User: Fold this.
Amino acid sequence: MQEAHLAIGHIKFSVMFWGQNTMKKSSTAGVFGLAVASVVAFSAQAKELKFNNPLPESRPETQELIKFADEVAANSGGELGIRLFNGGSMTLKNADLLRTLPRGVVDMSLLWANYLGRDAPALSTVLVQGSIGNVEELEAALPVVKDIYAKEFDKWGVKTVGNLAIPMLYASVFCRDEPVRTLDDLKSKKLRVWSKDQVMTFTKLGVSAQIINQDEMYISMKTGVVDCALYPALYAHTASLQETAKYASYLYPIAAGPYTLGMATSKWDALSEEEKAALQQAADNVWERTNEYSNDLQREMAAREKLGEQGVTFLEDFPQEDRDLFLSTVSGTWKELTDEAGGDAPKYRQQVLEALGRS
Assistant:
């Protein structure tokens, strides 16, 4: 826990952030600076909402959540506060959030639909990574995806307060000891991935893939549990991949559905209209800031360059033939997953395909 004491006149404030013990001084300084810039005097009757954030402090999404918390306080005149618990510090498992959040174990949480397949398979298969190939398709699909997400979360007693867009990412294969340039090369390696659909797709291609959480990826690469890890170069530093991987090669684009800023519906209903408005306005601003993709490729290339300076050799991209094969295999995986999920899943897939002009 980081605690900063602020004094204004005769009033002393404590601004607290919970997260990983490994938080770097530069991140702490940035958070502290943000808090100082917009400190709001909370009344003795101020209401506080605990917010579960599974992402580490180093992720840009966490910085957006810090701004969100700051704006909620400002919008409410200090009557409503958000206490962020970053880096999974509340020890709530992503896969369990549809069970824990509606029960009030935590007031709010960042949710990602692809992690919720055990309890809500129709929700987790709305959009499979690799099924969208460019920014134009992503922008066409997002309104439909957001609407489906909100309806599905509502069934679980979760109010969608807002959404946080994920950049157009580029998945590369990072390998520890040997260069991997083709799918054939990858067949002799053990690969870390983060979702069921990726396991299914790589298995069809003859590659051994297993799901390993981000917080376990570093040690898994370091000790040889896996030889390679699938990950976007843009976020590689958040998992210290530059310390465990010598080589990397780009494989496919990741256009993912947005994160949801979710709240137990019962807790939302208990808020005053003023409190709801304070949350909604801040959440709308999160979407406005993040739903923008014009600089994503530029940031990706800058990240690769920095990783290169840190010792990661970026090889040529996987051959176009391999990349096309991967994406066509993803398409088959998506249909298989929605058919397996049943219920509304096939209908949701069709709605997304229609938005993409592929029906």
